[in-house]
């Protein structure tokens, strides 16, 4: 199982609008790609929230091939639309993890 983790720091000025957009639009669109089988969204605790809140969304893929398909076919357009919508009001970084039992 592969986890594609996107951690995002969100400026207070757009926090509520961004959170609604993530829940109602962006995450459903990512899941519609069928590259991931489930997700979870978490809010980071014990971090500096002076300028905003920090969230992580973890998307679970059954294989590296499913993740690669997402990155190749869908990620560029999603990233561009996010940049156009939110600009410098968010800062995101991505990481890839392998579940070890």
TrEMBL record:
Q: Give the superkingdom in one word.
A: Bacteria
* Record InterPro entries: DUF4286 (IPR025563)
Task: Give any Pfam family that matches.
Answer: DUF4286
The molecule here is called: DUF4286 family protein
- Biological source species: Panacibacter ginsenosidivorans
């Amino acid at each position: 199982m592969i986890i594609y983790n996107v951690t995002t720091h969100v400026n207070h000025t757009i926090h509520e609008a961004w959170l609604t957009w993530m829940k109602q639009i962006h995450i459903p669109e990512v899941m519609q790609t069928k590259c991931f089988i489930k997700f979870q969204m978490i809010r980071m605790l014990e971090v500096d929230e002076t300028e905003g809140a920090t969230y992580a969304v973890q998307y679970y893929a059954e294989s590296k091939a499913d993740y690669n398909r997402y990155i190749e076919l869908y990620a560029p357009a999603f990233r561009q639309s996010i940049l156009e919508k939110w600009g410098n009001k968010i800062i995101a970084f991505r990481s890839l993890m392998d579940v070890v039992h």
